[in-house]
Amino acid sequence: MDAARADAEAAEARVAQARSSALPSARVDAMIGAGRIDPGGFFGLTADDVTPRIAQVTVEYPLFTGGRTTAAVAQARSGADAARAGLDGTRRQLTVAVVAAYADVLTARQLVDSYTRMEGAVAEIVRGARLRFRVGDAASTELAQAEARLAEARAGLIAAQGRKASAEAQLNRLVGHEVSALAPLGELPAVPESLVEAMDSARAHNAMRAQAQSGIGAARAGVRGAEAASRPSIGTFVEAGHVRDQFFPNYRADSITIGARARWTFLDPGASARVREARASLAASEARARMADDAIEQAVIEAWHALASARGMVAASRDGVTAANEALRATSLEVRVGIKPQLAQLDAEREAIAAAARLAEAEGQLHVAARQLRALTGLE
């Protein structure tokens, strides 16, 4: 964001710089030296040491530049528009990235908590199986299966801890400081009601499209500037001069001049090539704009369908969580009365954890898809 803001500020400065070419300018030229002049007896002057000094002040005001100034200002304005669109696009991309990282941290933390509880439960079952095995009340197969479930739970916990550390590092990098407690994702942000509405909004407000259109504006101004380079320019000027010891000892001359100055480079072999270059740049900018329109249209379609898929995944995952929790409750009762072994409860708990993880993943994907669609359509 800092880099994008700095780019926007630099672009605004270029606009001011382009405008300044239509304003008066003033400069001072000065020189002082030490030497010796020998006029050779001309006018009866003899050789003498001199300190030549020259000072000249010039003020100029452009009256007509052939369109170069207006073209430069238009080109700079288009560049500033593109930079502002780039800043807006960077903010939207950062928003989507933060939401994705935020959702990933929530999911990873939930997985760590679930696998921690599961590891504790499995460890207790393994401890009981070992005791029963020692007294001959349990088979070695039951103990081996319980230990396998424990190893699986520990592996799941380690993987979840690794994912949590990676997700938190990513979120810390994006937000610029260490995060601690995080609130739930909350309500889903508003999105366009239909794909047609999303397309219309993207055409009107998408940052990448705005940048591409600004590029066309800058290229058109570049063509006008290249064509204006071969036209004459006219300006007024005022010059004041102060000269001492310049041509012979004790030479003095003070002057002031007011007038008009015209410049016209009527023969410039490279002028036509610069115009062709500018027109080719315009054609390239227009082609890039068409490519941007196609890419935006594809991205909006993908984001729209990703949002619809995520909604379906959330609904299915919620049903899965309800079913898994009900299966866990029923299995726990059956284990308690001895109908099923404790390993069956572990399997049910594992399925409940997996269902909860799928729901968390789906909810995170739903929010990311919504933010992505909002970013593409200019709503974010």
UniProtKB/TrEMBL annotation:
Recorded superkingdom: Bacteria
Annotated compartments: Cell outer membrane
InterPro entries (UniProt xref): OMP_efflux, TolC-like
Keyword field: Cell outer membrane, Membrane, Transmembrane, Transmembrane beta strand, Transport
An example Gene Ontology molecular-function term: efflux transmembrane transporter activity
Chain ranges passing through the membrane: none
GO cellular component: cell outer membrane; efflux pump complex
Predominant cellular place of this UniProt entry's protein: membrane
Pfam families, per database record: OEP
Keyword Cell wall biogenesis/degradation tagged: no
Recorded family membership: Belongs to the outer membrane factor (OMF) (TC 1.B.17) family.
Protein name, entry field: TolC family protein
UniProt organism field: Sphingomonas lacunae
Lineage, broadest ranks: Bacteria, Pseudomonadati, Pseudomonadota, Alphaproteobacteria, Sphingomonadales
